[in-house]
From TrEMBL:
One of its GO terms (molecular function) is protein transmembrane transporter activity. GO terms for biological process: protein import into mitochondrial matrix. It is a multi-pass membrane protein. It holds the Pfam family Tim17. The chain crosses the membrane at residues 20-40, 61-83, 117-137. PANTHER family: AT05822P-RELATED, MITOCHONDRIAL IMPORT INNER MEMBRANE TRANSLOCASE SUBUNIT TIM-17. Keywords: Membrane, Mitochondrion, Mitochondrion inner membrane, Protein transport, Translocation, Transmembrane, Transmembrane helix, Transport. GO terms for cellular component: TIM23 mitochondrial import inner membrane translocase complex. It is found in: Mitochondrion inner membrane. This is Uncharacterized protein. The lineage of its organism: Eukaryota, Sar, Alveolata, Ciliophora, Intramacronucleata. Belongs to the Tim17/Tim22/Tim23 family. The keyword Mitochondrion applies.
Length: 186
């Protein structure tokens, strides 16, 4: 058993999950695209029927393409996690590079390399934005925690200055017996 800390589901299941998600997204996106394309190319009074027929004929192919990309990417990502024993953004960048190359290998080595660079670049951009957003969110959370700590320390100082126990909660017996306090009534 490895000591890799996953931020997603574990690897064998991740591949099948990404296959399904890729197929679903491809079919949904393909349905939107192919409906408008089929409706545009249909004669008058046949627009909706033409759009639906084009969805039925073409959307599963786009779903299959997305599923192939998702499955290949997840397989490469899991392979990188297994090789490096780390789950970090570099794995996704390398997996995008390899996936782009593998899926374009039939069109020749130079075209496969171009697609590999494009796939790796896109995944590096996505991972870079993710890392930056995560750092900004963590900094905002840290600032909020510091503000809350200062407020709580000030409240405790005021309670001590008034010779009150800072941990004591003010309790009104009438409000407790009557149910919800007046401030919570609708």
């Amino acid at each position: 058993m490895s000591s890799v800390a996953y931020h997603r589901s574990p690897c064998p299941g991740r591949i099948f999950e990404d296959l399904g998600v890729g197929f679903s997204l491809g079919c949904f996106g393909g349905s939107l695209i192919y409906f408008f394309k089929g409706a545009w190319n249909s004669p008058r009074r046949m627009k909706i029927r033409g759009g639906l027929a084009h969805i039925r004929n073409r959307a599963p192919f786009m779903g299959g393409s997305f599923a192939m990309w998702g499955g290949c990417f997840s397989s490469c990502d899991c392979l990188m996690i297994w090789l490096r024993q780390k789950d970090d953004p570099l794995n996704a960048c390398v997996a995008g590079f390899v996936t782009g190359g593998v899926l374009a290998i039939r069109s020749g080595a130079s075209n496969a390399f171009k697609n590999a660079v494009i796939g790796g670049g896109i995944l590096c951009l996505i991972e870079g934005v993710s890392v930056v957003l995560q750092a900004v969110m963590m900094r905002n959370q840290q600032i909020m925690q510091e503000k809350m700590q200062k407020m709580e320390l000030e409240r405790m100082r005021q309670a001590q200055a008034q010779n009150k126990n800072p941990w004591e909660i003010e309790f009104n017996e009438k409000e407790a017996m009557s149910g919800a306090p007046k401030s919570f009534e609708f």
